[in-house]
Amino acid sequence: MFATRLTIALAGLGLAAALQGAAAVWSLGLADRQVQRGRVASDIHVGFVELSVAKQRLRAWVAQRQMDADADFAQRDALLAEMRATLARLEARVRRAPAPGGADSGERYAALATLAASLAGLERAAREVQPLPPAADARSAWQALSERFDRPDGHDLRALLSAAMQREAAAVERERRAADASLARVRLLWAGISAALCLAALLLALHFLRALRRPLAALRAGADAWQRGELAHRIGLGGDDEFARLAGRMDAMAAELQQHHEREALERQRLEQLVQARTAELRAALDALQQADRRRRRLLADVSHELRTPATAIRGEAQVALRGRDKALDEYKDSLARIADTAIQLGRVIDDLLAVARDDLDALSLQRREVDLGAVLAAALEPARALAAARAVRVELGVEGAAPSLAAVPMPVLADPDRLRQLLLLLLDNAVRYSHPGGRVRVRLGAAPGDPAEPAWAAPHWVVLVEDEGIGIAAHELPRVFERHFRGAAARTHSAEGSGLGLTLAEALARGHGGTLELASTPGRGTVARLRLPRRSPSTAPVAGEGLAA
Questions:
Q1: Which of 19, 69, 314, 318 is most buried, taking the most CB atoms under 10 A from its CB?
Q2: H or E element at residue 529
Q3: What is the per-residue pLDDT for 364?
């Protein structure tokens, strides 16, 4: 745990600081003891010096007394009191020395005891001294005085003081060196402790820096990625410390945000699709309205174009019949016959226009269902044969293969039976209309294989061929036969009737059923209309014969 490690590290630093404080207290105590020892040694040395100085001054006073000079006894008493006080201070300082019982302490106590005894002798000598008689030998008296002052009780006081001062000077020097050494050790100790603390702090800082760098970098990278919108990014810190738990919670939050974002994107996509669907429906409705408007305008143009000529012809015939003198009954009959023929033609034109209008309005809404192509063709052949009989034209039916009739082999197609019958009747009517009297129209029905090598029963289309032996169509006119109101020169010469809408309507009905309508023609020899319709199912029973593929 990162918090535990940090707590341990801080506790370690606190313990090190406490140890450093303890070391400081110990080093200060050591330094204080060394200073005290040096101070005591210095004070003792000064005390011995003061005793030596006081002894010399007392000796000078005694010499002055012997010479019968004006000697002040108060000065003598002051010197003796100073020496006693100095000796008492020395004894007290020796007792307070930090390390009693050593070699120096024994010599100090011995010297003090000797000095105490000698001081008593000096005091007696100073008090008993008298002026020298006039005839006394001054030199001998001075030597006797010196001997008494230097050896008051049998000890060499001068040598004792000299040795004590040398010993204490050496002790002062020794304690000074010891104090310097102690201070050096304290400085070294403090330097070591400070260096150890700095090193420990540096190592801990490096450790926590390395420990913090990776998780903080991962957290920062995750935050940057999420800021850029990359919600699929995961921090993925391993472990069980605080950073790993924080990263896990942040990853969970990012996953939840990603789910919300994906749901929002799906909802937005769904709304966009709905809007696109509604827009497409509105566009389709608008296109339908525009197409309806175009169909309406085109129908009006067709009506205006096609009805004008027959109506003009009827009005002209009626005006001719009514103009001028009364005519014979046969002339009126002839006019009425022409008017009736023109009215019949007008009716056919109206039927064609209505058929075209219905095709424009209903081509996209055929009521398609599965029907038998042969049965629909049989229903279309009956009115076609009646029309052909009126024009002295024969209509012959041929079914490819060995089938004896249209009902012998099922030919399923998906079609609107009424509109398919209308399509077949338009082709038959066109073939009969442009045939010569005594001519023949052949209708053939079979299958068209997509590959010459495959059997006919696997063919994807049914084919209806309508062949006539009529006037034919010129090669340069053949590409325009499906245009509205187009009629070739030979067609206009052969028959004045017709609006040029039959093949246009037939081609539209063929496309509405998913098929194609093609024309091939030789001028003067006839025309072949080839209607291809997709069969209902490729698994339908086989049909013999493959001739229609050509």
A1: 314
A2: strand 526-534
A3: 44
